[in-house]
Amino acid sequence: MASEKHAFLSASGAHIWLNCTKSPQISANFEDIETVYSREGTMVHLLNEIRLSELLGLRCDEKFPTDFEYSAELKEASDEYVAYIMELVAEIKKTCKDPVMLVEQKVDFSNYVPQGYGTADFIAIADGKLYVIDYKNGAGVKVSCERNPQMMLYALGALNLFSCLYDTPEISMTIFQPRIGNISTYEMKRDELLEWAAKVLAPRAKLAFEGKGEFVPGEHCRFCKAKVKCTARALENLKLAAYEFKTADLLTDEEIEEIIGKTDGLVEWANSIKDYALNEALKGKKWSRYKLVEGRSNRKFKCEDEVAVIVEKAGYDPYDKKLRSITDMTKLLGKAKFVELLDGYVYKPQGKPTLVSIDDKRPEMNLAINDFKEE
C-alpha cells in the first residue's frame, strides 16, 4: 500500500483548506489520532489493493497483517468494491484493448498546490478518458463526487502523470462508498478542471500554504483537527446566544429558520468540546471546574455460558429469541438467497417527518392538511 504521510495541504483535507485557508497552519499543532474506524479504513484499502493487483496482474509487494481480523461487513464492502472495479475494467476493454490501470497510485499536483501529493485508489486511462475511483469506508456521512476537490486533485495528479503520453479530454471521477450504498460519479472536461486549478485552486493553496487569508467557519469544520480550539468556530456557534433573551413567541419566522439551520452544527461543536475535555482528562490534565468520575454501568453476568446451563437445569429457557434484522438476515442468507426467499416480505414504512433544508433532494411530504387547505 502506497503509504501516505499526509502532505501539509492534503487532498483529503482540500475541502477544509480551500474554504478556510488558515486551517492548515493551526491544525499542524494537533497530532493525527488513529481510531478504530481509521484503522479499519486503512486495512480495507490494503485488502482492496492486494486483491485488485492480483486480479489485474499488477505487482504488489504488500502483505495483509496477520494481527488484524476484518469483519464480515468489511469483507463484503471489499467484495463490492473489487467487483465494481472489475466490471468497469471489463466495460473499458470493450473499446480499448490495452488500458492503463493503476492501483493505490501516488500522484503529484505540486504544480498547483505547494508540495501537494496524494494517493489515488484506482486510475484508468482509455480512449481519451481518464477514470479516477476513490473508495470510502465511512458509513456515517454520505460523500458526493460532484465537484469534489479531493477527486479533482487526484485527477490533476493523474493528468500530470500521463499528459505527455495520452490525450484525455474527458474525466470521470467516482466515489464508491459501499457500506451505505453510495456510488457517486461526476464527469467534467479536462479544460474545465485545468481552469478551476488555475483560477481557484492555486490561489487558495498559496494562501493556505503561507498561512494567510481568514478563518472561515462552516460545515467543513467537522473534519478540521483544530475544530475544538478554533475561536472563529466558537464565535460562529455562539451567535445563537443573541436569541437568549427573547421569548419563543417573539421570534420571527426568519429567526426560527436561522436557528434551525445552526442547531446541528452547534450540537456537533458542543459535543466535540466535551469529547476533547474528556480525552485530555484521561491523559492526566486537571481541569479547574471538572473532574473524572466513574460513570454508571449495568450489571453483567461473569460467564454467560455457565449462567445458561444453570438456568436450563432449573427448567427455564435462558434465551430471549427474536427475529433477525433485515441486515443480519441478508448476511445469514446471502443477497441472492435473501431476495429469492424474502423479497416479497420486505416493505419500507413511511419515514418519520423531518425538517430539512429546501435544497435537500428528497421530495416534500404532502400532508393531508394541505389537501384540505387547497379544497
Condensed summary:
With 375 residues, the chain is α+β, with helices and mostly antiparallel strands. It is 42% helix and 11% strand.
Layout of SSEs?
Layout: H1 14-17, H2 23-27, H3 36-56, H4 72-92, E1 100-108, E2 117-126, E3 129-135, H5 149-162, E4 170-177, E5 182-189, H6 190-210, H7 231-237, H8 253-282, H9 304-313, H10 326-333, H11 335-342, H12 368-374
What keywords describe this structure?
375 residues, alpha+beta, five-stranded mixed beta sheet, globular, 42% helix
Report on the architecture of this protein.
With 375 residues, this protein is an alpha+beta fold. 42% of the residues lie in helices and 11% in strands. It has 12 helices and 5 strands. It has a 5-stranded mixed β-sheet. Helix 3 runs parallel beside helix 4 and helix 10 (326-333) packs across helix 11. The longest helix has 30 residues, at 253-282. The radius of gyration is 26 Å and the shape is globular. The mean pLDDT is 89.
> What is the typical, i.e. mean, pLDDT?
89
- Structural class comes to alpha+beta
The rounded distance between the terminal residues' Cα atoms is 64 Å
Q: Counting H and I runs of at least 4 residues, what is the number of helices?
A: 12
Global outline:
globular
Please state roughly what percent of the residues sit in beta strands, choosing from under 5%, 5-15%, 15-25%, 25-35%, 35-45% or over 45%: 5-15%
Oligomeric assembly? single chain
How would you characterize the largest beta sheet?
5 strands, mixed
| Spatial strand sequence of the major β-sheet | 1-2-3-4-5
Order of helices and strands: HHHHEEEHEEHHHHHHH
- State the helical fraction: 40-55%
Counted beta strands: 5
CA gyration radius, whole angstroms? 26 Å
Low-confidence stretches: none
